[in-house]
Amino acid sequence: MVLYYNAIMTEFKVQKSPYFSLWQTLDCGQIFRFKKSDLGIEIISKNHRAIVIETESEYIVSATDEEYFRHFFDFDTDYEQIVAGLGSDVFLGDAVEFGKGIRILIQDPVEMIFSFLISQNNHIPRIKAIIERLSEALGENMGDYFAFPTLDALSGADRSLYDSLGLGYRSDYLYTVSRQLKDFDLEYLQTLCTDELRQHLLKLKGVGRKVADCILLFGFRKTDVFPVDTWIMKVYQTEFKGVKADVLSAFLAQKYGFLAGFAQQYLFYWKRTKNV
DNA sequence: AGCCAGGAAGAAT
DNA sequence: ATTCTTCATGGC
Questions:
Q1: pTM, 2 dp
Q2: Sign (positive or negative) of CA dihedral A194, A196, A200, A206
Q3: Phi/psi at A237 (nearest 5 deg)?
């Protein structure tokens, strides 16, 4: 018999502010492993889990790894300054004000690569379900939850495992990338600039401009990218009629510089929430 | 029944 | 180098 123990959780509190809304942060498309439960809001990242309880004035965070989640929530970045920097933009205006509680989380590169491979041409609820199945199949059993699989576990699984997850044609992408990544030096990749790193990511099967930019932004903290997906295309379809997604992405990244990733999140959240 | 989804690969031009 | 077609799955 195998005995599991529940990981020890330490607790810390975070004051609410106009520049940190947990729900906006979770619901703007950058993370898939979160859910409401009777315990609170459960968030799983890599092999860690946090349970957040919201009160009137603060968030109470119970985490398996306090340092990990303090970093994860990006408390060192001044979002008031980011909001101020983008709020004067005529086009973004309302979206920034609407979503100014959004933060861009610090997440794991490998988890982002596989998560956004799964995301392509897929529905968000299905993406979340598939990631859970992948974690249950290959991730470490942490007692109350399953860690996201390590690269070793991912590259050790055979094709039939991936075929059993309901990935459709993406099964080959995940299987192939799990092998390709064994030749990637993540430490080295961390040192590259955005354009150089994107060139490496584009070698991965199933990774095109949009998925690469999501990996760059959410996994490598490259905020000078502007992922253009179907929602962003809808936003700009009148202003840039006929312009292709990759061209629009390059233009918007150039326009907003290191605020591009934030601008994209405000717009995505605004469009997907209000759908105007 | 047909359309669509946080797109990208491979073929055709 | 650019456009067109196809891709597996499941919810609606």
A1: 0.97
A2: positive
A3: -65, -25
Residue segments in chain A with a per-residue pLDDT below the cut of 50 = 1-4
Å between CA of A191 and C1' of C10: 40
Q: Which residue is nearest to nucleotide C3 (CA to C1')?
A: A244
Distance CA A23, CA A90 (A): 26
Q: Is the CB of A85 under 7 A from strand B?
A: no
DSSP code per residue over A154-173: HHHS-HHHHHTTT-TTHHHH
- Which whole-number Å values give the CA distances from A161 to A118, A153, A165, A172, A207, in the listed order? 15, 11, 7, 11, 21
Closest CA to A57 of A107, A17, A114: A17
Identify residue A234 by its one-letter amino acid code: K
Protein CA at A112 to nucleotide C1' at C11, angstroms: 25
Q: How far apart are CA A203 and CA A210, in angstroms?
A: 13
Residues 98-137/A with CB < 7 A to strand B: 119-124, 127
Per the document, the length of chain A is 276
Question: Over the stretch A133-185, which tens digit does the pLDDT of each residue have?
Answer: 999 999 999 999 999 999 999 999 999 999 999 999 999 999 999 999 999 99
For residue A274, the model assigns a pLDDT of: 85
Q: Which amino acid is at A184?
A: F
pLDDT given for residue A8 in this prediction:
80
